[in-house]
Write a structure and sequence with these properties.
The chain is built from 18 helices and 2 strands. The chain has about 350 residues and is an all-alpha fold. Helix 9 crosses helix 10.
């Protein structure tokens, strides 16, 4: 018996990798599958993330994330701004494995609803999952958590309202990462978001960076978060004062090391503007440029010797440099003058790094 297949409307078809149907349908999100099918159907056509997003009513950042997902899964490869079939074999990520285990055995999900053995009540603080720190949760795991944790849903909605935008898949993964993987409570995360808004950095990259730092430093309660925010604001004020004394204008965002130096010099060591300026000018004399680490070396020596003002420098035999002479000379001539303190000794101190 012979037969034929009349494809009809299927006469215009496109291939879908078997691996997608056999392995990925169960763990991939709807948006990921939609994006893959769309690009496969429009092969050999130049497309942009924006065009795909408009066609599928999706955010273009989500389109980019979904395409990256298929690259990571070994379905597509990306090179020279072109996607193509990939032969790369990728093992299931730990997050996917965990999601599959949770789907087969719902009792295994213990990262959201934790029972307190003492009073049999639901704990308000999420427990850490077994995922490694460097890996964010997969879309499958996020869907699992969102379906079971109203606190997480409320947190995501509140963050969207505060930022004034719809969170992309990557944005959502970042928040879930802080909440579930890092174990940060919803109130602490919300305080973090509000703080980033006040410093004009309302982006998820900054929120994630500071959030991971807080988690590493053991910030668990609202009081802990308030203390960290107070410290950060004080460091910013200290750096503004140092910048004014040193004549730094339009220097951009200070590094964490520079903020640490400024906070130490002003809030901890309590140096006056006059002493800061003196250390700054001595740095120019010795190095011909401003180096925070070198200035820190000078101030550290003064702090260890109990020197708090200019007169104590003049009266200290170890500090034989004449302040009045230094002030009276033009900067160009001072750069040629050899300082009386030991430059080599300062440079060999272990705190001379700008990292």
């Amino acid at each position: 018996m012979s037969f034929k297949i009349n494809l009809g409307n299927w006469s215009s078809i496109f291939p879908v990798p078997t691996k997608v149907a056999e392995e990925k349908l169960k763990i991939s999100s709807a948006s990921q599958l939609r994006v893959l099918l769309y690009v496969l159907a429009h092969n050999n056509i130049n497309l942009t993330n924006k065009q795909i997003g408009q066609a599928l009513s999706m955010h273009e950042e989500d389109v980019k994330d979904d395409l990256t997902y298929w690259v990571n899964e070994g379905i597509l490869s990306f090179d020279n701004n072109e996607y193509s079939p990939s032969d790369k074999k990728i093992e299931k990520s730990k997050s996917e494995t965990l999601a599959l285990q949770n789907e087969n055995n719902s009792e295994n999900i213990n990262s959201v609803n934790i029972t307190n053995n003492k009073n049999n009540e639901i704990s308000q603080k999420p427990a850490k999952t077994v995922m490694p720190r460097a890996q964010k949760p997969s879309h499958a795991l996020i869907a699992q958590l969102v379906s079971r944790d109203k606190t997480l849903v409320d947190l995501l909605n509140e963050i969207q309202m505060s930022l004034g935008k719809t969170l992309s898949n990557t944005d959502t993964a970042t928040i879930v990462y802080l909440y579930d993987t890092c174990g940060m409570s919803a109130p602490v995360i919300m305080m973090l978001v509000q703080y980033c808004i006040t410093i004009n950095k309302p982006n998820l990259r900054t929120i994630e960076r500071i959030g991971v730092q807080w988690a590493d430093e053991g910030v668990e309660t609202v009081l802990d978060a308030e203390n960290k925010i107070t410290e950060a604001r004080q460091s910013s004020l200290d750096f503004s004062r140092v910048s004014s004394v040193f004549g730094i204008h339009n220097a951009g965002t200070p590094s964490a090391k520079q903020l640490s130096y400024a906070n130490k010099w002003i809030s901890q060591w309590k140096f006056s503007d006059e002493m800061l300026r003196e250390a700054y000018e001595r740095c120019l004399d010795a190095k011909g440029e401003m180096k925070f680490s070198y200035i820190d070396g000078i101030l550290k020596r003064w702090y260890n010797e109990g020197i708090k003002n200019i007169s104590e420098i003049e009266n200290n035999p170890k500090q034989s440099k004449t302040i009045s002479q230094n002030k009276s000379q033009p900067k160009a001539s001072r750069l040629e003058q050899k300082p009386s303190y030991n430059i080599d000794e300062l440079e060999n101190m272990n705190f001379f790094d700008e990292n």
